Amino acid sequence: MASTSELDQEKRGDNVEYSSKEANGEHNTLDAIDSPTAYEKALIRKVDWRLLPILGALYAIALIDRVNISNARVAGMNAELELHIGSRYTIALVVFFIPYFLFELPSNIVLRKVGSANWLAFVAFGWGSFMLGQGFVNSFEALTVMRFLLGFFEAGFFPGCVYLISCWYVRYEVQTRLAAFYLFSVLVGGFSSILAFGLMQMEGLRGYLGWRWIFIIEGILTQVVGIISWFLIIDFPDKAQKKGFLTEQEAAYIKNRIEIDRSDAVNDPLTWAKCGHHLMDLKLWAFALMFMSTTMPAYAFAYFSPTIILGMGYDGGIANLLSAPPVVFAVICAYIIAIVADKYRVRSPVIVLQCVVGIIGLMITAYHPKDGVRYFGIFLGTAGCQGNVPAILAYQSNNIRMQSKRSVGSALQIGFGAIGGMIASTVFREQDAPKYVPGLWVTTGLQFLILGLLACTTLHFWRRNKQVDNGTATKPIEGLEGFKYTL
Asked: pLDDT tens digits, residue range 163-191?
């Protein structure tokens, strides 16, 4: 990555861009700041505060809307809709992920064409509407239809956010930003159990049971925030100047630092031919399988933690409340690790660390005889899997180039995350409650899959970097001379 001093030199050397502004008598922001370094930090903070909070808020709501079925289940929905019959609850979970997987890549293509604000606000309002609809269903079949449509509209949001964020920052800033965006969402989502507990107290209002109010109120909240987001979400760096978010000078600076870092500030339109070419890169499939393997336990803990805790002897309300502290612990650990990873420019070591922590937590939850210790295992398991979500997203983002490839890669990676959700929904079977030992073993096996894939990619990346260093590379990495993989 280019150093700050290199960026400063490039900035001072861009005579055409900045001299023209001075000739016109316009104020040069650089001259008003003590140093270009201070200018750069202030500009990135400006982007941070405009880009991350609104995306984080919307994704927090998306996570709540996706997993609050587990809260509604213990709040009376299980009995009223007879979800205990056969595999009804599992079907209601799985059906969400079918459209979620299928429509992510088409959504990223539309995102670039219609603009980030237009598309992300639209899909948010759409899933909020079907979230609201779940509060009025009277049968398992109707619930299943609502879950399918919820997945259809949510499909475009997370990959779109990852694609957008990765285009704004240089490689060794991106894990911290992805962590801030994702972990804020997880933190707010972790309190969904407490929110659900409060909404359960509306039991009987207008003749509705408490579980219905969970869906109704949270659906309305999603619609409201979706409308607000249209005014706040910024577009890609090459379009942000058009809406007045950045000045001409600021937009040039952002694009300039990305060009120095990896030469893909300019959009290369995604075509189906390019899509097919990018999908032939085995790296993308390895990153996708890793992401699947870490989202699976993330979904499992979100969907089944209240039920596991319920099996420890607590009632439904307390089980929902006790689901929140492990998430808070996970967010704190994961953000600290993200800061360290960006500071020291490493990816693989932190993924390994969090996999090991996750495995330890899963085994404790599965086998320790004391409920208090098993509850502590949920802390470790949640920390390991949630921390690896931004880590693995950053691992891919650092090791690919071109915006079209980022679009395909983010859609594929997060699409495989949906497969992780399907696995979590099916291996945690009703007959294995409340400990779910088989499901915890499948989850553990997937952590070992991450370690195996990571060993393969790390070895390949190390060899290719050595070839670049030795001048023996037959072709440049990712088509860019001097580009090296992040290990």
From this structure: 999 999 999 999 999 999 998 888 887 77
- Residue 121 burial (CB count, 10 A): 22
Q: What does the alpha-carbon distance between residue 57 and residue 49 come to, in Å, rounded to a whole number?
A: 12
Is the previous residue joined to 99 through a cis bond, with omega within 30 degrees of 0? no
pTM of structure? 0.83
pLDDT tens-digit series, residues 75-124: 888 888 988 888 888 888 889 989 988 898 889 889 988 989 999 999 99
The CATH number of 46-463 is 1.20.1250.20
Q: Which residue type sits at 239? A: K
> Where are the chain's structural domains?
46-463
